[in-house]
Amino acid sequence: MINRVVLVGRLTRDPEMRYTQSxxxxxxxxxxxxxPFSGQDGKREADFxxxxxxxxxxxxxxxxxxxxxxxxxxxRLQISSYEGQDGQKRYRxxxxxxxxxxxxxxxxxxxxxxxxxxxDKAPPTRNxxxxxxxxxxxxIDLSDDDLPF
Length: 149
What we know:
This protein is mainly beta. Helix content is 7%, strand content 44%. A hairpin with a 5-residue loop joins strand 5 (70-83) and strand 6 (89-104).
């Protein structure tokens, strides 16, 4: 049997971390995941999916993610039941995360983690060089001794 869930979305509120009586960290959070279609009114809709993560990853989620952060979750769907205050049996669906990826935060506008600009004239490239080391005349002086094969 296969029970695998993969989600990408933004946290709807700050994660809530607690510890079990035996000292194991558990963090709960909710992801807002956009649906791939628009509703009848033309607006995009989202699903709000409860997630739970355990142990060291729970501590990391609580420490590094906050409301609005984008995260990727890989886990399994779990349905649990409990008795409500009115005596009725209630069901809860949640994703038990095997891994959580920190994709971006709301404040960074979806940018990658490029180094900050040191001057306005020459922004660094992705590899951190002030200029592209491969940009030039197009000619490369190589001899057969320079090749590894």
